[in-house]
Design brief:
With 223 residues, the protein is of the alpha/beta class. It is built from eight helices and eight strands; from the N terminus they run βαβαβαβαββαβαβαα. It is globular, with a radius of gyration of 16 Å.
């Protein structure tokens, strides 16, 4: 099976946003990853719901929305209204994670949970069967273009084991420093979905880069 490719809009040219989204529409990308940052949970502010709503009108790719914000449960209905396919919230930001996951499902979206680099996968033991996706941050969240944290490879392997042992069908997504060197190793370790920003959007031929990521084979997973 081929990995799911979810280019990160955070690295797009916001002066030519429609052009970049239409480029992704023509590409082999599967999803469009959208990082909403509030300047509180992470030390940066990105974009909010007006941008999500505008992009949803021109994107032919399902919206993979990642809320890097405090109290994300306040925005479930608003995220759904913007047409999100997946709403991912941070374990570290949710006091009542199970309730938030239920609310995401009730709003008609798939639910994802994200872990910061220092958060172990063991915290997901009691929620792994209720989510469709786990997003592992392979950089400290807040900014694009950071260096990949090597421990992520072993973390993917531990998460893959937890998923298999629990009978969960959750996908594993990785975000941060995904490029030519790290992507094959992530896929081999058991990653299902790759989020890539700078590596795609700063390339001379983004469509070719997306194609090269898409051609990686997930059948070579190791546990």
């Amino acid at each position: 099976m081929k990995p799911i490719i979810s280019p990160s809009l955070l690295s797009a040219d916001f002066a030519n946003l429609q052009r970049d989204v239409e480029m992704l529409n023509r590409s082999e990308a599967d999803w469009l990853h959208m990082d909403v940052m509030d300047g509180v949970f992470v030390p940066n502010i990105s974009f909010g719901f007006p941008v999500l709503e505008a992009v949803s009108k021109i994107s032919k790719k399902p919206l993979d929305v990642h809320l890097m914000i405090v109290k994300p449960e306040r925005y479930v209905a608003q995220t759904a209204k913007c047409g999100a396919m997946m709403m991912t919230v941070h374990y570290e930001a949710c006091t009542h994670l199970h309730r938030t996951v239920q609310e995401i499902h009730a709003a008609g979206m798939k639910a994802g949970v994200s872990l910061n680099p220092s958060t172990p996968v063991s915290v997901l033991e009691d929620i792994i069967g209720d989510v469709e996706l786990v997003l592992l941050m392979s950089v400290n969240p807040g900014f694009g273009g950071q260096k990949f944290i090597e421990n992520t490879i072993q973390k993917v392997q531990r998460l893959r084991q937890l998923i298999q042992q629990s009978g969960s069908h959750a996908l594993i997504e990785v975000d941060g420093g995904v490029q030519a060197d790290t992507a094959p190793r992530l896929v081999q370790a058991g990653t299902d979905a790759l989020v890539s920003g700078s590596y795609i959007f700063k390339a001379s031929d983004p469509i070719a880069v997306i194609r090269s990521l898409k051609e990686l084979d997930t059948e070579t997973k190791s546990v």
